Amino acid sequence: MRYTKEIFDILSKGGFISRNSISQQRSHYFDAIEDSFQDYYDYYLGIGFVLEGGNGYYYFTRTENRVELADKVQRLALWIDRVDFLKTFNNTFGPGFLFRVSNILEKFSSDIELKEKARTLYADVKTNKEKIEKLVGDLERLGFVELENELDGTYKVTDAFHYIEELIDCLTIYETEES
Q1: 40 in Cβ contact with 1 (< 8 Å)
Q2: For the segment 109-168, what is each residue's pLDDT rounded down to a tens digit?
Q3: CA distance 29 to 21
Q4: Residues 144 and 164: beta-carbon distance below 8 Å
Q5: CA distance 59 to 163
Q6: In Å, how far from its chain's centre is CA 59?
Q7: Strands (E), the chain
Q8: Whether 148 contacts 168, CB under 8 Å
Q9: Beta partners for 111?
């Protein structure tokens, strides 16, 4: 098995390795996992990590206690708002989608709904530009987007974005009747 350390360094920090990564190195990691999934699965399981595969991406999971799970659900709530914001920006926002921070900022001038949704993003940040830069930074850090062109600032949404979309789709919210 090759790249065990490199793959671990990415996935253990909550990152993803996607099939459609711009990075040639990450593409090699994806192919290596794809070719020897069971070997990698067994290896990482031995050190307490479960290698999971999704729709064109890989990530780690671990068994968590209730407190950790509650924290994770709370963090997921933030991502629901972020994905909602991105889908309001462009309803086709998803794997393979290309965008620039400037595209999102331009849309603010003509889209009141986008402005409203931006208010809930990063309450500690004042300007829309800073909010969008922080959002894109978080997306990039987790491997949901990658910088495709440094010159014009074009980002590409990776297959790992399916993960957050699928997670949100799995949530069922039940209304409770108060007596």
Answers
A1: yes
A2: 889 999 999 988 888 888 999 999 999 999 999 899 999 999 999 999 999 999 889 888
A3: 10
A4: yes
A5: 9
A6: 11
A7: 17-18, 50-53, 57-61, 98-100, 145-149, 154-157
A8: no
A9: none
